[in-house]
Amino acid sequence: MAFELPDLPYEKNALEPHISANTLGFHHGKHHQGYVNKLNAAVEGTDLENKSLEEIIKMTSGDTAKQGIFNNAAQVWNHTFYWHSMRPNGGGAPNGPVADMIARDFGSYEDFKAAFKEKGTSQFGSGWAWLVKAGDKLHVTNTLNAHTPVEEAEATPLLTMDVWEHAYYLDYQNDRGGYIDHFLDNLVNWDFANKNL
Ligand code: MN
């Protein structure tokens, strides 16, 4: 069973003006599709062929001989998670149980925002910023290139933001901080974070 590119959970222009249809078209249709294609080519005929994405990520994490497979599998997983981490008319203060946990673990929503933005802006080069639950506590973190909390047994990812340049360069050029502000204020899907708790 080959992996397939999942549909976006909204129309390509649904996140405008914060993320353009042009960016989503390339990001989903070219980048995400490219990871799916490369993963399928790499696992075809191997013992990984019938494993789930999560199993492949865990089985190849840290194995330098299988780095190419890991990178594509993790990028397929991360991108699908990223599309669901956003919604039209999202962002702003959270609701539900995650709101209480953010207040408890970060002090306030504003403090969470500052911590998340710091993780996104300080990730040197390509990677991801995350809100995760580890134990019963929320943390913000960042990962390099394709790395993902899925590799860690302890961490449950709640939200992610892609900080590879291809996620924002067409709309924000080099202004990663501007992209992060729009992500937090207008795009975050708090219902998805609550569902992942
Ligand atoms: Mn990406």
What does this entry look like structurally?
51% of the residues lie in helices and 12% in strands. It is α+β, with helices and mostly antiparallel strands and 197 residues long. It folds into two domains: 21-84, Fe,Mn superoxide dismutase (SOD) domain (Helix Hairpins, Orthogonal Bundle), CATH 1.10.287.990; 96-196, 3-Layer(bab) Sandwich (minor pseudopilin epsh fold), CATH 3.55.40. A three-stranded antiparallel sheet has the order 2-1-3. Helix 1 packs antiparallel against helix 6 (165-172) and helix 2 (53-60) crosses helix 3. The protein binds manganese (II) ion (MN). Manganese (II) ion is lined by residues 27, 31, 79, 162, 164, 166-167.
Low-confidence stretches: none
- Largest sheet geometry: 3 strands, antiparallel
Alpha-beta content class: alpha+beta
Helix content: 40-55%
List keywords for this structure.
197 residues, alpha+beta, Helix Hairpins, minor pseudopilin epsh fold, three-stranded antiparallel beta sheet, 8 helices, 12% strand, binds manganese (II) ion
In short:
By secondary structure, the chain is α+β, with helices and mostly antiparallel strands.
Protein topology:
Elements: H1 21-43, H2 53-60, H3 67-84, H4 96-106, H5 109-122, E1 127-134, E2 137-144, E3 155-162, H6 165-172, H7 176-187, H8 190-196
Antiparallel strand pairs: 1-2, 1-3
Helix pairs in contact: 1-3, 1-6, 2-3, 4-5, 5-7
The structure holds manganese (II) ion.
Manganese (II) ion binds next to helix 1 and helix 6.
